[in-house]
Amino acid sequence: MDVQQVFENNKEWVQSKLDIDPKYFEELAKGQQPPILYIGCSDSRVSAEQLMGLGPGQVFVHRNIANMVPNADLNVMSVLNYAVAHLKVDHVVVCGHYYCGGVKAAMQSADLGILNPWLRNIRDVYRTHQDELDKIADEDSRYKRLIELNVQEQCINVAKTPEVQAAKKDRAIKVHGWVFDIGTGKLIDLNIDIDAVTDKFSDIYKID
Ligand code: CO
Question: Which of 200, 173, 193, 151 minimizes the C-alpha distance to 84?
Fold first, then answer.
């Protein structure tokens, strides 16, 4: 790929925006108030704004391998803090995707060096749901289910944070778990009732 093409694409994109609204970038430069924080996978096929049909200014985005929300990851915790406590988003989305290489790697026993501690977080999800997962004989179905359960566990990690706990008290912030199906292009809402899931152990993570 000729990287110079990117700059040509950019010129065309700028012009297409200005054709519709000559003040588009002037307005964009004034600030942001996105209603959604999206936490997704870095996978090149899962394109955040594009798959949601949203544009600049509409969604605050964090992406990493396998859309993880590890409790001690300064990067995702900083994004969460800024989006929830400062930008005051109303929705936090954790979006996984079928055919996720990160989740696939976690299901195998290969030594992947620096990726090991990251993937171990996914292996912890497997351990937490081992009874259910081990009963699924078909490997592809088990892989898909682990992707869904990983999204659920990362939603719990979001809900556990003091920022989200505080935001729940002063506004109706919602945590959503979604999966993008690369094979069809469809976005699937896992309909996780995060309050029902976290109510059971809310006292453990409570910060007053
Ligand atoms: Co992925």
Answer: 173
